[in-house]
Design a protein that fits this description.
By secondary structure, this protein is of the alpha/beta class. Helix content is 43%, strand content 15%. The protein is built from ten helices and eight strands. Strands 1-8-2-7-6-3-5-4 form an eight-stranded mixed sheet, with helices on both faces. Helix 6 links the parallel strand 4 and strand 5. The chain is globular. The mean pLDDT is 95. Bound molecules: adenosine-5'-diphosphate and magnesium ion. The site of adenosine-5'-diphosphate has 13 residues, from helix 4. It catalyses: ATP + H2O = ADP + phosphate + H(+). Its EC number is 3.6.4.13. Keywords: ATP-binding, Helicase, Hydrolase, Metal-binding, Nucleotide-binding, RNA-binding, Zinc, Zinc-finger. Belongs to the DEAD box helicase family. DDX59 subfamily.
């Protein structure tokens, strides 16, 4: 409606495809677990950033998204909040060993994965939410052991994840959310085939893709991964 339109214009949010919920102006207006709201507050986040205002409510209702917003605009939290919320709700009441991974985040480098997992831990503190980091440089045995003990979220680089999947049997059938962070990099030559190999092992997850810039070729590849993808861009067009 008109109100949503003018709010988006003010926040420089543009949306294409699907019927996308209106941006939210506060974290409390999304129905999030109380503990997650407390963790957001403890992180010092008073208000959502524009990308969070639009992407969080859309992701929470299961939409697949291709999001572009400049570096430093808070993209990480915009996919972690829906993931923590979803996992905490599903895993509530389950024994640790019953917990199959429900979400997976792929990122191009070990360092980025470490940062994202660190933020995930902060947001998931005190909730039934555990994470596993799957990157090169650490022993595979420890990584698989952690997953087998029950985790909600796997954060990893495609190469190491494939190595792990080849060597061990990991149940991926419950993974309902797949994030491709730095998607412009993840769907370019080099990474694309690895990402698709992992994607094919999943059962049609909701796909959330984020980057600072999204070339047309990446948008085309992204559209092939989920039907009804919503494209969200933050900031002035053609910047
Ligand atoms: P991007 O992935 O878009 O480059 P990040 O997700 O790494 O950006 O976030 C950049 C910085 O902004 C981080 O230090 C993060 O803690 C901070 N941040 C994220 N969301 C908020 C918020 N709602 N309020 C204040 N700071 C935030
Ligand atoms: Mg980022």
């Amino acid at each position: 409606n008109d109100q949503t339109e003018s709010l988006r214009r003010k926040l420089e949010i543009s949306v294409r495809g699907g019927s996308v919920p209106a941006p939210v102006l506060s974290f409390t207006s999304c129905s999030l677990p109380q503990k997650l709201l407390q963790n957001i507050e403890a992180a010092g986040y008073e208000m959502p950033t524009p990308v969070q205002m639009q992407a969080i409510p859309a992701a929470l209702i299961g939409q697949s998204l291709l999001v572009s917003a400049e570096t430093g605009s808070g993209k990480t939290c915009s996919f972690l909040v829906p993931i923590v919320s979803y996992c905490a709700k599903i895993h509530c009441g389950q024994l640790p060993t019953e917990k199959k991974p429900l979400a997976m985040i792929l990122s191009p480098t070990r360092e980025l994965c470490i940062q994202v997992e660190g933020q995930a831990k902060l947001l998931g503190k005190g909730l039934p939410f555990k994470t596993a980091l799957v990157v090169g440089g650490d022993a595979m045995a420890g990584q698989i052991h952690r997953i087998q003990q029950g985790v909600s979220l796997i954060v990893g680089t495609p190469g190491r994840l494939i190595d792990l999947l080849i060597k061990y049997d990991i149940e991926l059938d419950a993974i309902s959310i797949l994030v491709l962070d730095e998607v412009d990099c993840m769907l370019q030559r080099g990474f694309h085939e690895q990402v698709m190999q992992i994607f094919r092992a999943l059962s049609q997850p909701q796909v959330l893709m984020y980057s600072a810039t999204i070339p047309k070729v990446v948008e085309k590849l992204a559209s092939s991964m989920a039907k009804d993808i919503t494209v969200v861009s933050i900031g002035k067009p053609n910047k």
